[in-house]
Amino acid sequence: MAAPGGAKFPQAPLPPPGTPMWHVRDAKLSLGRWRCRTIGDHRFTDSSVVDGPIDTGDSFVYAYSDVDTSGHSILRINPALLPDTPPIWFVALPERNQPSPAISLVAFITKDHAPGTVISDPEFFSMAVHTSQQVGAIRWWIDSGIVDQIFVAEQWRRQHLGRALIASAQCYQVHNGWTPRLASNGRRTALGQHYAETALFPDRFAPLDDPAPPMDPPSKE
């Protein structure tokens, strides 16, 4: 997958679990956003945000973020992280009128937008795409970076969509200049716990202490 600006993802192996993930801000963009790269190596501590230009050589690049010619945020995740994952685009649903601002990214796989594009809710409702076509969603608190919920439609599981949602949310958080580290508290579903046990960054998952009910709708049977 090509990165914004024509850059390519270096042909580097996926770093071992626990390798620091840090971020380069290459340029300031409109609306407080940044053109960013997310790197996996030991040059900086985990979740560091540094201002470019910085030559990261052949280090693994987890993601790039930028804006397109229409002003939409574009999130590009390294395909090495997401084998067999369908290309997705997103609707951003901010919730700022509450004590702890939150946001959701809702994922779709239609061909209405280029992969990685983030559009607004009003834009979405002008499209001939129904909310029932979503393949997954992630919701988190902006200030703390704590993930509240992740949902993947049952027919799209086992295709790394959960990882795609987390990686995209992390990319979007840094792209907007927010807290650069997403993490999980001790409340998770059984599926969420399974993901935590195989995560690339296990230290970002607090021990499970509050099992949550499944997010799947009740069976009609």
Keywords:
single chain; 221 residues; mainly beta; 13 strands; globular
Order of helices and strands: EEEEEEEEHEEHEEHE
Largest sheet: 11 strands, mixed
Distance between the termini: 42 Å
Low-confidence stretches: none
Domain tally: 1
Question: Helical content, roughly?
Answer: 10-25%
GO molecular function: acyltransferase activity, transferring groups other than amino-acyl groups
Region (Disordered): 1-20
Pfam families: Acetyltransf_10
InterPro entries: Acyl_CoA_acyltransferase, GNAT_dom
Describe the structure.
Residues 118-170 form the N-acetyltransferase domain. One of its GO terms (molecular function) is acyltransferase activity, transferring groups other than amino-acyl groups. Residues 1-20 are annotated as: Disordered. The chain has helices at 121-124, 161-175, 190-197, and strands at residues 21-28, 34-40, 49-51, 60-67, 73-77, 89-95, 102-108, 117-120, 136-141, 146-152, 183-184, 187-188, 210-211. With 221 residues, the protein is mainly beta. The relative contact order is 0.15. 12% of the residues lie in helices and 31% in strands. It is built from 3 helices and 13 strands; from the N terminus they run ββββββββαββαββαβ. It starts with 20 loop residues before the first strand and ends in a 10-residue tail after the last strand. Strand 10, helix 2 (161-175) and strand 11 (183-184) form a beta-alpha-beta unit.
